[in-house]
Amino acid sequence: MSKSIIEAKALQSEAAAYAWVEARVWPQGPVCPHCGGFDRIGKMAGKATRIGLYKCYQCRKQFTVKVGTVFEDSHVPMNLWLQAMYLLCSSKKGISSNQLHRTLGVTLKTAWFMAHRIREAMRVVGVAPMGSDGGVVEADETFIGTKEGRRKAKSGYGHKMVVMTLVERDGKARSFQIEHAGREAAEKIIGENVSNEARLMTDAASYYRHGEFDVADHETVNHDADEYARYERDADGVEHVIHTNTVENYYSVFKRGMKGVYQHCSEKHLHRYAAEFDFRYSNRVRLGVDDVERTVRAVQGIVGKRLTYR
Ligand SMILES: [Zn+2]
């Protein structure tokens, strides 16, 4: 019989959890977060010593692997952090703070902070332009929830929050919370994130038709005319399928998660939820990333993202 992941040592014992996280965050051995030193570090031992405590004999300061990460200043045992991370990484539509609270036995408030810190770990920083290999990048936007201080309107999208997403076909997703769907936002986000080698595909919204994008090619599909995909040959005779189904599939998971699991999301936090769905999509099974490897990648994302808000 296959072994249950829930029985993994790193999810059950705090010492094993520390060792597991240290091996991922410090693959070459411990690094002092205070001075960057790595060659004069000793592990603190003794009965009264905290788990995972090290001392740097270069700067004479002590540290654990939590210092300088989203786990800093948290008293949650490391194995519970890993349990929460595994749950968030392996649940396609996310997992509510209420569920984390019940499953992990922490307070609802703690569960909420843990989930947001894990989303921060999932946030991608300093990334290269999308589609730089000449691949397809699909762009679209979706409307979600209600903006703060706005009443739900019978029609139109003015009261809703807007997320714009770029998805590389066979690749990653990157989402942005924007104020209005329009030419300004589309040009800025595509300009900052899409390579000029990329083939951009969008729907036929006017801001896409009239926008100026520095890309190798920009094709639109006209959903209003019931056009969902078409085939076109480029100057080199290569056939391309023009559609935005990839980004729409991304949104179907995102919206089911936001409606079914997260339900009420404030404008202030929407970008964090978007980062969570981007992370799972960009590290999905089809790209060779299973639930455990996805958790490893989230753990590697804790570094350098210490959160100071509370
Ligand atoms: Zn040091």
Strand-residue fraction?
A: 15-25%
How many DSSP-defined strands?
10
Overall CATH class of the largest domain: Alpha Beta
Which residues sit in consecutive blocks of at least 5 with pLDDT less than 50? none
The unique ligands bound to this protein are: zinc ion
Count of helical segments?
10
* CATH fold-level topology of the largest domain: Nucleotidyltransferase, domain 5
Structural class: alpha+beta
User: Which series of helices and strands comes N to C?
Assistant: HHEEEHHHEEEHEHEEEHHH
* Proportion of residues in helical segments: 25-40%
The CATH architecture term of the largest domain is: 2-Layer Sandwich
Q: State the end-to-end distance.
A: 44 Å
The radius of gyration over CA amounts to: 22 Å
Mean pLDDT over all positions: 93
The number of domains is 2
Topology:
Elements: H1 9-12, H2 14-25, E1 41-43, E2 54-56, E3 62-63, H3 78-90, H4 97-104, H5 108-122, E4 136-144, E5 161-168, E6 173-178, H6 183-193, E7 199-203, H7 206-210, E8 217-221, E9 230-233, E10 239-242, H8 245-262, H9 270-282, H10 291-300
Bound molecules: zinc ion.
